[in-house]
Amino acid sequence: MTSHEDFSVKETRPNISSRRISTGPVSSFDLVEHMQYLYVRVVKARELPLPCDPYVELKLGNYTGTTMPFQKTPNPVWNQVFAFSKDRIQDITMEILVKDRVVVVDGQGHPTIGKFSFIVPEAPMRIPPDSALAPEWYRLEGLNGVKIRGELMLSFWIGTQADEAFSEAWHADVTAVSGDFVSTTRSKVYLSPRLWYLRVNVIEAQDLILKINNNKVEASDLLVKAGLGNLFMRSRVSKNKSVNPEWNEDLMFVAAEPFDDPLVVSVVEQVNRKEEHCIGMCVIPLSDVERRIGAAPPANKWYNLSMMVEGQQKDVKFASKLHMRISLDGGYHVLDEPTNNISDLLPSSKLLWRPPIGVLELGILNATGLSPIMNNRPSDQVWAYCVAKYGTKWVRTRTIVDSLEPKWNEQYTWEVYDPCTVINIGVFDNGCGSNKLDLCMGKVRIRLSTLETDRVYTNSYPLVVLTPFGLKKMGEIQLAVRFSCSSLLNLLNQYAQPLLPKLHYILPLSIYQLASLRHQAAYIIATRLSRAEPPLRKEVVDYMLDANAHQWSIRRSRANFNRIIKLFDGIVALYKWFEKIRKWTNPIVTGIVHIIFLVLLFFPGVILPTMFFYFCGLGIWRYRRRPRQIAYIDTELSTASNVTPEDLAEEFDPFPSRNNSIDDLRRRYDLLRSLGGRIQTVLGDIATLGERVQSLVSWRDPRATFMFVLFSFVAGVMAYLVPFRILAFVAFIYELRHPRNFLRRMPARSDTMI
Residue 729: its pLDDT value, please? Predict the structure, then answer.
């Protein structure tokens, strides 16, 4: 990282309608700059000469777009939309050619069946919410300008990015993208699947028939294995060595709607922790599982275990049984993000949802100064797109091909249910291929609770990414954000509610369960979104969800340690101030402190009001200097500006490690040993201090315990006889005694001695 790089957030003033007085019609896209496009919708053709494989080619200056060809049909239907940015139009005439793909003319390509052309400035203007322009039939002309048989139905107009055809249109600037990957350059909206926690409470089993040890149950370990989709979990080994084992253990899964995968539960016999055999299994469709929204336990049921013969499930007349409680817990919120950067707090069950309190609007305007990334393309090209995630709604802008200064000017809206949430906006370089990764170029986090309602924030945010070579600024992105609230009372009421749904506090999950369930939720979301069209790739979803935030990083550990140290800055400052008072550095201030202490001592009823009035006055005093800009990434707090190459290599090493260097692994191991040694020493000192306090009355040291008991007796008598105010006054005066003794100024007879 170079020292001259600027990582600050800058306020900008883009030309958006929410900041200006508009004299013409304005659509709802008031947080972005309006970009005009020439739209051409090619619907269909009729009465074309046979035989032919017709397709349509649009030519406007250097831009050329084509429809899909049809085989042997005189009446093809395309219904495709083409968009040409008005800022890049180099010609005033649009030529629309109907060509035949079967015949190839030497040196000229496919022959032209007919054509139609129009003047671009004469195209009508359309502004939503006007209805779509009705397409019309146009007679085709030959190359000599003579009308021929055959007609083409199309419509053309001048519109903006607010047009509903914008997201599905073929854009002229994606001509460098091969046809198979054009869909990956379009803007789309995705929805995460609704997730539920699936709780499988395994209680006990009855009448198990062992296979390995011929019913010698003392030599076998019995456990339960449950599977949902590709995930399997195991219970602990039953302590009850019998054919009626007991577990009473919860196995937690994340299930996504629609519930296609069934729950498969089996009882496993294990010998010497190596050989395993499935005693029996049961398959439970999730559609039959009870859904609960409260803390009441679900109904317990006995499930028949089917026998396994040569790997096949076989029903028997007399079956072993498994006792379980299975429920889909809709009172929890399924965590898929770190809790400190969470964007959604709603429970799984819609019955518990409150009405929204406001609307969040985001305008993604443009990016500047993007740095190229080597992504199997020339080193000076960037194919950038943005992804924004809030709640279950993901949005993806279209990809701007080969531009270091891309302009998106796309606006999106979310419903807000809680202000203490965060919206994430990431910028990525489109790989446009199944074997190429979409590389991240930076991310912006905006916490809604820090936004003033109904105010438009227009800022330029630096795109900062930590690479294996250090911190790097990839450019800047300009955003416009507005948080609108319909009722201030409802907004303030949310601050009085618990952050997570109530079931998180009534039936809390352990830290280990939450970590496992969050990993499952991130995997399910990444899998579902990667199956969309265009797919939202796994590396993009993992980056937006901070899926690797739990992994060890010495840089993050150092940053968190510095944060803890800063929390004690106020206490340290108060201690230094008290030391100055105690040493009479300023006698006037020390005297005032004496007076205040006496007032508080003899009028204790004013202590709490004084404290609260102090905080009130402090808040009012700091109101004028309140932060006016959105908080952003602090590179100094993150200790990312001075991180060493060794720490970066460790942070980017995946888990499990792929580093084959023995020296690097030995260095990391030695570093962990040194850190563990320090932690061990601190914990040992804390334990020693606590044990010494306990030893005061343990008579391990009879003399010390005797002295402490005697002191406690004398102190108790004095505290009973002497009023507390007198004791506090004497202790305070003694602590704040003047450091220079007045008796030293008195004359003595030592100066008369020889």
Answer: 84
